[in-house]
Conjugative transposon TraK protein
Amino acid sequence: MFRKAKNIDSAFKHIKTFSLVLITGVTLLSGFIVHKSLDTVKTLQSKIYVLANGKALEAYSSDRKDNIPIEAKDHVKVFHQFFFTLSPDDKLIKSNINKALYLADETAKKEYDNLREQNYYSNVISGNVSQAVIVDSIVLDLNIYPHVFRFFGKQEITRPTSVVVRSLITEGVLRNVARSENNSHGFLIEKWHTIENADLTIKNR
């Protein structure tokens, strides 16, 4: 009689222990599955698709702070390319300048007005001059805000009789603004000015 009671008590303890182990295992497994599911959903939500040349390309979104150096430098690069890339075509010049002025404040507008008053753009058109900008490097200070930048590059000016290469060093600051169709990086160049713009080489054609 007592032996049967002991067997029943021992069996009950074994069942109790087994049940606790099973419940703990199921709880841990359920937690793991929920965690992986949430992680998968988060990953899927971070995916975006970019349509380029009729093809959908998969990309991943990220926080802006991760891309600030890349976007800021590209903003400065694009601005200089639009502002300094000129051809003997009035419409193209105006189009490029308008795109550049969306990326900067009135300091860029003043520089454009000064060049226009000096008949710089008229001379480009009448003299069949082409001008391109070559980017060497862009130095950006992210430790202060607005972010200070310095652009190092060259201007290649092609005239009917010669090709002139000039140094081009400019400086300014970058302020955060809302992104738009005309300003996809969400930066605005302020206090922009030219530090150096001097002839480096002149070659006859």
